[in-house]
Amino acid sequence: MNDRLKNQVCNLPSGTLIKGKWHQSVYRLVKKLGTGATGVVYLAESSRELVALKISFNNMSVTSEVNVLRHFSKVHGKVLGPSLLDVDDWDSKLNSGPLSFYVMEYLKGEPFLDFIQKRGSEWTGILIVQLLNDLQHLHEAGWVFGDLKPENIIVTMAPVKVRWLDVGGTTLVGRSVKEFTDFYDRGHWSLGTRKAEPSYDLFAAAMIMINAAYPKRFARQENSLLQLKQLIEESSMLRPYRHCLIKALTGKYEHAAQMRTDLLKQLSGEPVQENDVTLKTSKSKKKVQSRTAKRKKKKYHLLETVLLFLSLMVAYAMYVLIQTW
């Protein structure tokens, strides 16, 4: 899609009618909700309800994102992303060919950072615990969210629940993350690769917490880890979570469930040690060393018994020899 067409698609006026070429469903645009790397999302009215309609800049990205949304609906019965309602093409007058679009459930709520600023910083840990629970299910299904950031998270009400909005960056585990935002990308901070693995999302989850404490995003300095550690220590909001945050920033967690457990401990006032992983490893090493020592001790006792027996045999032989003489 050329820049001129992309600009037109991103600025469609309120009231524009989008009619599906194949399913014939009609949607009336209400307002723009946001623009991403793969397309623009509008709030729209269908014949039954308000929906979120995404017009893509690339037909291939539509196929990928639709597949992800369909897969989300089958992940252990969990509703991870918005429900997929329709997929079609629009014969607009803007382009010589049809524009692909898909329609999702419209999630009504507050943006993540706005919710925390209004309700209080104590909600940060609670919402991230929810997020980590959903990430665990996503990772178990073989996917990484990739472009995890506050703009892709909304907080719905009654009950208060974290939900995901844009799944355009979702990537199969083991591949390279296809979409990212620098501030939440560990590669940008020189703290890891862009390989799609659970720890990539957990780094982003830690940066979301840091962003909640520092709403104005800051630039990376030369020693990025030291910079982030100092910011954590200087924030009364982040300091209680410092061990958990540093472990996530340095890739110490293999699974979202581990980070979630640590966060729950800190929320309940239970101490979490930064070197928990090291302690577990040390305990394992001590067990191995103990077993090895026991085996050596048994071998020593056996050798000692054999030598004693041989000594007695030699002594007896000498006794017999003396008696014979």
Q: Your description of this structure?
A:
The protein is an alpha+beta fold and 325 residues long. The protein has two domains: 3-105, Phosphorylase Kinase, domain 1; 110-274, Orthogonal Bundle (Transferase(Phosphotransferase), domain 1), CATH 1.10.510.10. The chain has nine helices and eleven strands. A hairpin with a 4-residue loop joins strand 9 (153-156) and strand 10 (161-164). Helix 4 (123-140) runs antiparallel to helix 5 (198-213) and helix 6 packs antiparallel against helix 7. The longest helix is centred in the last third of the chain and has 49 residues, at 276-324. It is elongated and about 100 Å long. The N and C termini lie far apart (113 Å).
Task: Give a summary of the structure in a few sentences.
Helix 4 runs antiparallel to helix 8 (256-267). Strand 2 (26-35) and strand 3 form a beta hairpin.
